[in-house]
Amino acid sequence: MADQARKKQSRLWLARLAAGDHRAFAEFVEEYKKMVFICCRTLGLKDDEAEDAASETFLAAYKGLSRYRGQAELGTWLWRIAYNQAVNYLRKNRSQDLLLAQPDEQLADTHDRPPHTELENNEQAQIIWQAVERLPRLWALAAILFYREDKNVKEIAKIMRVSQNTVKTYLFRGRQKLKEMLADALGEDIDVTG
After folding, report:
1. Binning pLDDT at 50, 70 and 90, where does residue 186 land?
2. Whether the Cβ atoms of residue 89 and residue 49 lie closer than 8 Å to each other
3. Residue 109, Cα to own-chain centre: how many angstroms?
4. What tens digit of pLDDT does each residue of 171-182 get?
């Protein structure tokens, strides 16, 4: 039911945007800005960098509306644009090494910002999402897309421009690493698969 409502909302936005309704664009940005910002931060952009990449994302989405064919969900399409904008920002402004998924690589400054979780009052959820933020960037992005954004493996593969098997590997390795991290942090065996 929520999926139907989301698709209907997407069609309405697209129709209004095509008609030049600026209020529709403001609503679109408001609806998706948190998601775009999470994508940018997960790839390692600092807040000000993420804001720049998010602005570029929405500009690119607006310019690309005529090319949106509706084959992917609107949110999935926007994730892909955000991912591309963040990667382009990193390529222009930082070394390519930041994009490599090294097992022990940590996100910079994750301990300084609050966890991105819908269940802020749930202490365990906070601990888990903080741990996700410490995963290698590509593993963290795959986990966020899969568990927070409810994207399937095929959609994630399109967004990240990797094979479905690569996404499955990122998710598997991410779950294994999370299990280790959480067991160390909490001193117990944690199930991070569901």
Report:
1. low
2. yes
3. 18
4. 999 888 888 887
Rounded Cα gap, residues 84 and 78, in angstroms: 10
Q: Which one-letter amino acid corresponds to residue 10?
A: S
On the question of pLDDT at 93 being above 60, the answer is yes
Which structural domains are found in the chain, ordered by start?
1-99 (1.10.1740.10), 100-194 (1.10.10.10)
In the predicted model, is pLDDT for residue 190 greater than 60?
Answer: no
pLDDT 10s digits, 54-84: 999 998 988 888 788 777 788 888 888 998 8
- HEC profile of the chain: CHHHHHHHHHHHHHHHHHCCCHHHHHHHHHHHHHHHHHHHHHCCCCHHHHHHHHHHHHHHHHHHHHHCCCCCCHHHHHHHHHHHHHHHHHHHHCCHHHHCCCCCCCCCCHHHCCCCCCCCCCHHHHHHHHHHHCCCHHHHHHHHHHHHCCCCHHHHHHHHCCCHHHHHHHHHHHHHHHHHHHHHHHCCCCCCCC
Among residues 69, 70, 80, the alpha carbon closest in space to that of 32 is found at: 80
